[in-house]
Amino acid sequence: MHLLGKSITVDVNKGTPQAKRVLDLPVWNFDDQGAIPLTTPYAVKKGDKVTVTCTHDQALRDVLPAYKGTKERYVAWGEGTTDEMCLGIVLFTRAS
After folding, report:
1. What is the pTM of this model?
2. Residue 19: enclosing H or E segment and its boundaries?
């Protein structure tokens, strides 16, 4: 996510009885986008579904210097800092 990002979660099997939230960042920090290792590894099995959910806050346009003097516009996916995206890179390793 970029500047309008508010929070991000990663869930395994979201919406099912086996659901497990493996990552929850209630406050997104654009300047801290490093890898976040899980404190406890989680075993993902064949057929499990991993879901990344991002929340964006359009109101941040009114307070962030990067948007000063820019017109309101529909925010679309893009690589530019004033565009947005929802991306979660998940690394898997094989169990021994």
Report:
1. 0.83
2. none
Tens-place pLDDT, residues 34-87:
888 888 888 999 999 999 999 999 889 889 998 888 888 888 888 888 888 898
**69 φ, ψ (degrees, to nearest 5):** 80, 5
Return the half-sphere exposure (C-beta side, CA atoms, 13 A cut-off) of residue 74. 2
Q: 37, 86, 34, 82: which is closest to 58 by C-alpha?
A: 82
| Partner residues linked to 25 by β-bridges | 8
Laid out side by side, the sheet with 20-25 consists of 20-25, 5-12, 50-56
Residue 25 burial class via C-beta count within 10 angstroms: exposed 0-12, middle 13-18, buried 19 and up: middle
